[in-house]
Amino acid sequence: MSTQDQARAIVNRHQHTIKNREQSVLSRIAAEVGVSDDAVRNQSRTVGMS
Length: 50
Fold this sequence. Notes:
This protein has one domain (3-47).
């Protein structure tokens, strides 16, 4: 695997980790507020947080 491929893999993994962390935080907040988790997931796609 080239250095460039390794760097790309690291960045992709990092972005995926950040996305999962953000989704977890949003889900926890939604649960506290009483909003359905589906609404949070749909909103994330609508706003472009993919």
